[in-house]
Amino acid sequence: MFYCCGITEQGKPAHNEDALLIHRNVLTSGVWEQKISSPFIAAVSDGVSGERSGEVASAMCLGLVSEINYNSRMNLRQRLMEIHRNLAEYSNQDPENHNMQATLCGIAADSRNNIISFNVGDSRLYRFRRGRAEQLSRDQSLVQMLYDEGSITLEQKRTHVHRNVIFPVFGNVSTPPQIDITPVEGGMDYGDVLFLCTDGLSDYVTQLDMEEIMELPKSLPKRLRLLVDKALEAGSKDNITAIAISVI
Q: How far apart are CA 2 and CA 42, in angstroms?
């Protein structure tokens, strides 16, 4: 059995282009919490800034993901590519939403509690274990590529002028996304927390801040709220969405 809580915050922008999915529930504003048994999927999605109708893309993307009845025998990459094609086809047919796009980062747990992660874009998955945070996803971004090449430092990666340049995501009408699907090695132990977030949080809250807040003797929803507030206090000008998952 798992406990999941999530929050999606509009923040300073005029509208919320983020959304979250916990099991079959898609949320585009507010707070959600739920006890769930496996199998299940949880994910966050961020409508790509600068493209039209990002809020439509993120909600539609997660709505389609929520229809997946996940099991370990499924070709999840194929199912997710179908969702990408659905978004691209929809945006091609609707001038109001032409080339709408969205990131996607999430986990899928099968009936035996084996967990895999999937990611397209720069939303993130972390695991908190014994006071330490480990980023399990890999950003599909220009600055990540430069960092991997050794061209920039970790601090430069956080502040780089092109840190918001990402590789093709769901709905891109010219280039299909490259979907990263990876087993969560070591799974989840009692006391672990899996944490999903959009870049409105991860761009403004350091890993050390995350570790300090997640170690506080507070309920998981309160710690999640503190992380969102920390991002806002640090000057986040983006929508902020996060999900926390623990074993109960």
A: 11
